# Entry
Amino acid sequence: MEIFVQQLINGLTLGSIYGLIAIGYTMVFGIIGMVNFAHGDVFMLSAFIALIFFLILTTWLGISSVVLALFFVLIIAMVLTSLWGWAIERIAYRPLRGSFRLAPLISAIGVSIFLSNFVQVAQGARNKPTPPMVGDVIVLFQGASGYNVALSYKQIIIMVVTAVLLTIFWYVVQKTSLGRAQRACEQDRKMAALLGINVDRTISLTFVIGASLAAVAGTMYLLYYGVVSFNDGFVPGVKAFTAAVLGGIGSLPGAVLGGLIIGLIETFWSAYFSIEYKDVAAFSILAIVLIFMPSGILGRPEVEKV
# Structure
């Protein structure tokens, strides 16, 4: 029982990180119908930004409070990664928006390769560790075998941040003028433009929001694992996209729900079966769910207009 509870906590933590990345996928796809395959590498880039500025704040500027340093790192990473997201959309995606459907996809793959190689050249190919940020844990209970079920403060931070950001961005999409513009662009971009909505600005802001969420995920990833590498963008990016599809592409709660499911499947499979097949298990569950629910768990079925 104690092992089950511990793996449940670990799975929710990992799933929260996947969910944060998946929100960026689902927002971009929901509006312009494009899978931004560079999003995983934007997440990786944000983790490096967080690492660099955490070391600057703690080592060079002498900030001793880890909480204060993490707060500043989170803000800086969100701002800088948002600028990257805006630049990528403006340079690589907007000129191809009216082209054939595969052109933006090819451009996204190109941006992904560029970011990965850029970070490899700039930071090197070795893993980059960081000093432990938050190491304290709360022992919830002790099992009969003497196994302690623990909840670390960094796990609490990751799950709370995910819940808060999901609530904030759900409110933005559902209740604000920007959200109404996004939903209008999702339904019909041409009609939205005729009604006075600045489609280009709405799409750019969507990329900026997605990149800022990737920055939060990158900072939480660095906080949780304490190490980052230039090739850490592809696999988490693919799994986050899988989570977005599983939860229902276009649904923010569905993206987080899908991330939690993927994280739980990986964690429990690694604990009770074979860690080598945890990815196979996750994608198998995705295939089974999509057979019976093609639009995902919380996705809305597409209605073909006649």
Q: What stands out?
A: Strands lie at 128-129, 137-142, 148-152, 227-228. The first helix runs from residue 2 to 32. The longest strand covers residues 137-142.
